[in-house]
Known about the structure:
The structure holds two protein chains of two kinds. Chain A is mostly helical. Chain A has helices at 3-35, 45-51, 54-58, 66-75, 83-96, 103-119, 126-150, 155-182, 193-205, 209-216, 222-231, 239-250, 257-273, 280-305.
Amino acid sequence: xxxxxxxxxxxxxxxxxxxxxxxxxxxxxxxxxxxxxxxxxxxxxxxxxxxxxxxxxxxxxxxxxxxxxxxxxxxxxxxxxxxxxxxxxxxxxxxxxxxxxxxxxxxxxxxxxxxxxxxxxxxxxxxxxxxxxxxxxxxxxxxxxxxxxxxxxxxxxxxxxxxxxxxxxxxxxxxxxxxxxxxxxxxxxxxxxxxxxxxxxxxxxxxxxxxxxxxxxxxxxxxxxxxxxxxxxxxxxxxxxxxxxxxxxxxxxxxxxxxxxxxxxxxxxxxxxxxxxxxxxxxxxxxxxxxxxxxxxxxxxxxxxx
Amino acid sequence: xxxxxxxxxxxxxxxxxxxxxxxxxxxxxxxxxxxxxxxxxxxxxxxxxxxxxxxxxxxxxxxxxxxxxxxxxxxxxxxxxxxxxxxxxxxxxxxxxxxxxxxxxxxxxxxxxxxxxxxxxxxxxxxxxxxxxxxxxxxxxxxxxxxxxxxxxxxxxxxxxxxxxxxxxxxxxxxxxxxxxxxxxxxxxxxxxxxxxxxxxxxxxxxxxxxxxxxxxxxxxxxxxxxxxxxxxxxxxxxxxxxxxxxxxxxxxxxxxxxxxxxxxxxxxxxxxxxxxxxxxxxxxxxxxxxxxxxxxxxxxxxxxxxxxxxxxxxxxxxxxxxxxxxxxxxxxxxxxxxxxxxxxxxxxxxxxxxxxxxxxxxxxxxxxxxxxxxxxxxxxxxxxxxxxxxxxxxxxxxxxxxxxxxxxxxxxxxxxxxxxxxxxxxxxxxxxxxxxxxxxxxxxxxxxxxxxxxxxxxxxxxxxxxxxxxxxxxxxxxxxxxx
Lengths: 306, 484
């Protein structure tokens, strides 16, 4: 497999996952907004922190209100991580490797890009927002499904999966980091119902709520949520699961030893830290370290294969 | 209002489907009847169906535009197919095979003995002034003596229905993917018609192309490494490069993916390290393939590629230098070339062509320029042409000057009344001019596509069919009327 193609496949996986995750994120925030009382101000700014950075945002907008943040996340100029930008990059990547991916996948990606490009403004309006975001999420899921069902599970397929899971691992840590920081101060006493709601929203951003319920059979508590999202190896969007997937894929490639070592280093960090019991500050530092570790894994991949 | 064939006016032209108003040709009767029975709504549905299939399938063509840079356009497609009877097609096919065989012998001769020059058939002066004759290729004989493995010849029909060859494209002819995709679109949109007619399939082109390329491999191994070399996604024909690579299961590479090592072999950079390449279907022009030999500024090509090719370690299709026969002055000699090498009478005619390099022919062209089409010898894509009858006096004068300055570089042809075919315009059909580009593959045997790419000038009265000039296309059906 050509190095350039391997790199393109990996990025294709990342961009598609990014578009899907961003859509999930907006969806959950929008729902949360409807549930919270007016007295609790749940800003939209945290979403900017999750997918991009404030500098880029405030270079164009004055206030982080619903409309501006949504514009930025959907199609914002200055935001290469917006849904439409991600879809556009995915399409450009797919276009350069059309001969590698099944034809239906190219058609789906092309169609999804066209849909996103032509309809993103629907999501600015609350009434049609859900429809647009769900379409994006479902289309990416469909693409993932077609790939799983039709593409030979060769090196190329594994590079796609590596990209998808690295992006997922990255996004999961970002969501936890920003969300836990913007939640209400931790108290020993009875949690407020609203904090409860917010932790639920974290779970829901990752479509983890139902699975958490089945698994934990507990009320929503910070340590349990953290444990589930960081360490539950059987849940596909948990950090540990994503890392392990990357590890499994890497093992099918030539010369994988060094990359594998980097992955194991992050896994070990995760197991040793007992992150569910960390207080906010420590958790933040810990997540920084994990993100650095994920970067090292990606750099090693780049160095070895691309 | 349903389509009324009585109102379809063929004008002074030969129409591919209709003899005269209200009288479809025998082989087009079923098709015309089918179209006539469609309501406006149905017609629009078919058209929308085709448009959406093209959009979803991502069939695009990159158009260069001064204002917007370059943009991807959906492939302009007309839903009314163009029909040719199998009987007639078989004659055309024979003529094309003959022509390409002679052209390949000609190219090989030019780079070796040059007997045709010595025997006084082809003037030496033309050779020395040919832009596409590459001295770097002298003394080389590629396997089987074949240089142009893939040729796309443009055919037109005049007002009497006679088929002429307008030009031969022997460098990097494009369009075959659109021929294949047009058929896919038609099958999605018009499945009913495929029951009515015995339409010969075109789908085997990618495997024929693969077999032809594989046969060129310098290493005698079961699975030679074949790659398609593209200038990249910003090239107007990128869609086609990717498509063909995908259909053949070959790697699609850009120059940077390849490297020529000290052993004069070509390798590609893979996740396993370097891996040997046997055959390159290159879609980059000669001038850019190897900065060591040609344009040193080129970043599209691969340094050392010519060394590897001349050492016989890699096959290039088409071979460098094939473009020498892609010259519009050379074109005018093809009938003599066929007679010289094959000792046969040409089965397909050339459009009469005046060579400005000959003083008396030049005088004739200068005197009659307003009636002629003047073409530079080595341009493609419809650039740099003068269409006399449609040009202003100022343009005529400018071209007269160009011809006087560089007579070798110009040929002129009388303006042909190109044939037309019914084409959807709104909810009705009007005649639009068209041509046909069949693709000819040459290795041990010569194979011609069943039909080819029909290009249509979408603008009323226009005869410029090039997609780079906004032309569109139609599906081309070779129909077997005797079988059905």
